[in-house]
Amino acid sequence: MTGSLPFLRTALLAAASAAASFPTVAQAQDVISREVVQPLPSEEVQRLNRALVALARTPRDLDALVEAGTAAMGVDDLEAAVGFFGRAADIDPAHPRVALGLGTVYLRSGRPEEAIPQFDRALAAGVPAREVLADQGLALDLIGNQTSAQAAYGQAITLDPGNDEARRRLAISFAISGNRARFEEALRSLLDKRDMAAFRARAFGLAILGDQERAASITEQVMPRDLSSRIVPYLAYMPRLTAAQKAAAANLGIFPRAADIGREDPRLARFAAEAKAGSRLEPAGAPLGGKQGAQSPAVSPALVSPPAPTAKPSSPPAPLPVIATVVAAPQSPPPEPVRPAGPPPPPEPPQRVADAFADFVADELPDARVGAGAVDLARITVKREPPPKPKEPPKPVHPSRVWVQVATGKKADALGFDWRRISRSGGNVLARLKPHTTPWGEAHRLLAGPVDRRETAEAMVRELKGKGVDSFLYVSPEGEEIRQVK
Question: What single Pfam family name could you report for this chain, choosing any that match (predicted)?
């Protein structure tokens, strides 16, 4: 339990210190009774404490070790979680929850090459696929295999339509692949229900696709100012990252060092090469539903719908296939048939139309000649319709715009009075702008604008500050209704 010893030591020292601080009976007579209000620890901390108490009684309790590892991840102590799950693996390496826990903690630590084998073990041990596929897809994204990652996310959503995290990860994977239409489509339902994590995913996806200005505006809208000010500079570097670095930054918040921007991680490159070369991660047999010898990306057997089995009253149903992580790689061509020794056959001549019908006539077909009054089809140019253009998502009724926020208030009707007072203090800066309002939690924002550019709004904020008017830049997200104050 190497990862958990520091925590246990700290807990024991804290308990001893607390016991030493209690007054004696003699001292208690002089103590004045006062009511003390102390916040209770979070549910995850309580869960970890209960597991530690169980481990103090039985250090090799497998269930308690798994519980402690899961709770440690809940409080973001990944090092302790690795220690708990590692000790559990020493007891029972084939336990499904141990493999799943190790895979999850390795994934959150940015170690996909260690997470992928653990997810395979968990699936083989019987963990339901719906609990593994979303994390398995992220691990594949983190080694730069977006094709297989998107297939895993799609299967996870099919098994669990309410898995919003899989949808957000799928959208980012599409952005990494450069597919903006699928990126927007994957997030649309989440944005419609105002899922804040989806707005964060959209900001990173837009940055990956090169739209830094819109990405920065969304980040400033949905994140606290101190946090957004630290993240926005990183968004400009997103297009320069490798596919694996983009996935780590957008999903886990792990950014590479400046010297490593755009450089492949040697560990991940070696793992991806070994996975492509080894047979452990390759599916056995031809893809289900495909033609013999057809070239198609390799996907996990569970990510392809199997054909319906023939009904047999006396036979039990066939077991579901075990899902295995598969790294997309071109399939090897079928082996050449064994030919007798001898000179190689001459190359086949190009096939002609006449040769295709040779079985239907005794003699070779005559050359076609254009008779008098006949129409020569060879001279007719067939007009082909251009392929349909991909449909762009409809433009929002309320587009994203730049504003200067000058106040907030609970009652929207009272903001008109506030505007008259603030506009007098702002003078010429606010004279040409109109007051607007939009809900903000239980209150309302009072906005001046709209302003044509961010730079103009920032200059206005500085000028208003000199006049004693507190204000800041606000960029309204797409779809947010902004009403003019009457």
Answer: TPR_19
